[in-house]
Amino acid sequence: MTDTAAPTGPTAVSASTPVADAHRDLRDRLVAAGRLVPTGVDGIYGRDEMFESVVAGFDRLVSAAGADADPTRVEYPPMIPKVNFDRIGYLRNFPELVGPIFSFVGDAAAHRGVLDRLDAGDDYSDLLTQSELALTPACCYSVYPSVGPRIAKGGRTFETCGYCFRHEPSVDPMRLQAFRQREHIRVATPDEVLAWRDRWLERAPELLSSLGLDVVSDVANDPFFGRAGRLMKMSQREQQLKIEFLVDVYGPEHRTACSSINYHQDHFGHLFDITTADGETAHSSCIGFGFERATVAMFQRHGMDTAGWPSNVRDRLGLG
Ligand code: AMP
Ligand code: ZN
User: How far apart are CA 263 and CA 240, in angstroms?
Assistant: First the structure.
């Protein structure tokens, strides 16, 4: 979640810096071409058939790149139980991005109170009740809770795909509030996890460059919140726990991550009581590819109509 991209968040994007202008310009071109359909909220778009044909081709490539590990494929809805969300610590680390789900629980009188506020155009959020769910910010979070308690020798490999939510409204079409990821996930001994990660450190940039994207790998710098967050940030960098594959969409100084690989060490193993065959706490790593990011990057790179894209890229994506 990182990026070296431009400043984010509602205040930053409204500033009229050249990068913010470049964000707006790319967004406007995608909308004018019909690739993105605005909804009135920044970071929430409809996508047309052409955009989705690129997403589908990219998804196939990401899936195929990990097929040699014969992963267990599993799909989840785009929300996770609040207990898991809380346990993972997302609210602690990234409070401004969270998406807890609220609903109405009450009688007719309480409902009339909500409607009075609704009709008056007033805020009614304090009359809603938090549900047992939160929108998932990363699709691998659905996987870890059900992996334990003990995994067989050789560990487990998973693959999952789904919508993620992060509350980061922006005019930058590379930074959405709802986006899709495909993730490959390894849960095993430290050596097994690191060997798996090493293979992806090569494959991920290869995959993105094969689509004509200009990719650089770098150690990530997630925007952990607050004072405690500064420590997390430092140790993430020092231990090189997260590597990102950054593409050049707004110039080499403002690269954006289209994919990232995270080594969690025993974090999820501890949280969800997962042990390896030898009884040690399991380690884990995941690599996520952002569909919309990669797709927007390709439209920026090759033009707003796939008909004009280089034939090798069209072939790779199965565009015919
Ligand atoms: P992260 O968990 O932040 O490393 O994100 C994994 C991948 O999801 C990134 O490499 C991006 O491809 C994608 N991604 C993350 N945040 C966003 C966002 N706000 N909009 C679109 N894609 C995103
Ligand atoms: Zn993940």
Answer: 8
Burial 257-295 (b: 16+ CB within 10 A, else e): bbbbbbbbbbbbbebbebebeeeebbbbbbbbbbbbbbb
Q: Is residue 293 part of a domain?
A: yes
Task: Report the domain count for the chain.
Answer: 1
From CA 27, how far away is CA 172, in angstroms rounded? 7
Q: Ligand 1 in contact with 180 (CB < 6 A)?
A: no
Which single residue is written with the structure tokens 């050789």? 154
How many whole angstroms from 145 Cα to the centroid of ligand 2? 13
Q: Where in the sequence is the domain holding 178, given as residue range(s)? A: 18-99+137-317
Cβ–ligand 1 distance for 316 under 6 Å, the answer no
Residue 150: inside a domain? yes
For residue 10, being part of any structural domain is answered with no
Looking up residue 174, the CATH number of its domain turns out to be 3.30.930.10
Q: Is residue 127 part of a domain?
A: no
Q: Calculate the CA 106 to chain-centre distance.
A: 35
Site to substitute for ligand 1 among 47, 180, 293, 296, most atoms within 8 A of C-beta: 293
Question: Does the pTM of the predicted model rise above 0.85?
Answer: yes
In ligand 1, the atom with minimum distance to the C-alpha of 138 is: 2
Q: Is the distance from the beta carbon of residue 255 to the nearest atom of ligand 1 less than 6 Å?
A: no
How far apart, in whole angstroms, are the C-alpha atoms of residue 106 and residue 92?
30
- Per residue in 59-111, pLDDT (tens digit) is 999 999 999 999 999 999 999 999 999 999 999 999 999 999 999 999 999 99
Q: Is-contact 284 193, C-beta < 8 A?
A: yes
